């Protein structure tokens, strides 16, 4: 995921595998990598609506969005929006 998201030139990137919190729920598989939380700051998000930012992330992740990722929680901000939230 990290290498694919590098195409968005992140200034900050945090990836958290939350798969174990979803044990027994839809999409869970032993070994993780199914439920993720991503927080990303990129200048490429400036002037983009949230939906456009999410699409950029989905496009960067490509086929990972179908397998192994089942769920992805996204926080995507432009640098000016991230100031003071670090």
Provide the descriptors you would attach to this structure in a database record.
three-stranded mixed beta sheet; 3 helices; elongated; 86 residues; alpha+beta
Could you describe the 3D structure shown?
The chain has 86 residues and is of the alpha+beta class. Helix content is 23%, strand content 23%. It has a 3-stranded mixed sheet with strand order 1-2-3. The longest helix is centred in the middle third of the chain and has 12 residues, at 50-61. It starts with a helix and ends with a helix. The model has no long low-confidence stretch (mean pLDDT 90).
How would you describe the oligomerization state of the chains in this entry?
single chain
User: Low-confidence parts, pLDDT < 50 over ≥5 residues?
Assistant: none
Measure the end-to-end span: 22 Å
Strand order of the largest sheet: 1-2-3
Task: Estimate the strand proportion.
Answer: 15-25%
**Class derived from helix and strand content:** alpha+beta
